[in-house]
Amino acid sequence: MLNTHRPTRRGALKAAAGITALTAVGGAGLLAAAAPAHAVGDGFGLRVVERGEGDPRMWYYRFATAQIGWNPGVNVLLPDGYHTSGRRYPVLYLFHGGGLDQDFITFDRMGIREWTAGKPLIVVMPDGGHAGWYSNPVNSLVGPRNWEAFHIDQLVPWIDANFRTYAEYDGRAVSGFSMGGFGALKYAAKYFGHFASVSSHSGPASLRRDFGLVAHWANVSSAAVELGGGSVYGMPLWDEARVSADNPVERVDSYRNKRVFLVAGTSPDPVNWFDTVNETQVLAGQREFRERLGAAGIPHEWHEPAGGHFVRPDLFVRDLDGIVARLRKA
Fold this sequence. Notes:
Shape: globular
Order of helices and strands: EHEEEHEHHEHEHEHHEHEH
Number of strands: 10
EC number: 2.3.1.122, 2.3.1.20
CATH topology: Rossmann fold
Protein name: Acyl-CoA:diacylglycerol acyltransferase
Pfam family, one: Esterase
CATH architecture: 3-Layer(aba) Sandwich
Strand content: 15-25%
Helix content: 25-40%
Radius of gyration: 18 Å
Strand order of the largest sheet: 1-10-9-8-7-5-6-4-3-2
Mean pLDDT: 89
């Protein structure tokens, strides 16, 4: 089912397998415009320790940062003609899902180059941890894993300083799959002035429903594969303020004046039980979120295609076209 919902005020994880598939359930004000540097360099608490700029479109960096206990990577996909046009471009921050085989290269493997061919858009695809949940955890027993601080406080201003971007609200979008879709919804609400468009492809939108299933899974999965026994929200008791701050259904007013794009599958996977659990919970949470958006009179586009918990290239391309249409033109 494909729907565009524009209500009146009265109207109303196949990216990984086994336990890592279930891990996938669930990457401030305006920044001043910065003149692009001639050579990509350090700054904002980041030090470039590895780079690859030989590909005309896909540039790669690895950083040393005090926010993460290892050196996270990022792929920066440049639009056709970037090196000769002299123009500034809008930016999409695109977040991967959870799982031991998921990282900043995930969308390159899937075909992001082909999906963005000819589109005037820079796409930034950073590491977000195997189960980082795009968060600064309550506690970590393996060193810092502050993915939220790395992305928002360091990476966004670094990108604006080193590439020809529009360093403003109408110059940025955020999107993601599964855990990354949650991260996109979370960042768009918590950092309202950063992103004019937000998209969640099979990403959970409700942390507390069904006795807090998604919040509990964020804790369990992060403890198992990310934080060495630590947790995102605290165990056995949650930091309730953090849960509420991150929970899209509790932040509905923060999606006003944004383009909102949501995807969740409707059909269970007859082979993969984990996919079935993932997408069933995602679908229920997105429907709850959509109901609240509708009741608040906030326009949003939603899609419920057949199938389970996996990336749908046709809807990603549709989303990309909507992002380009919403953001400031190159």
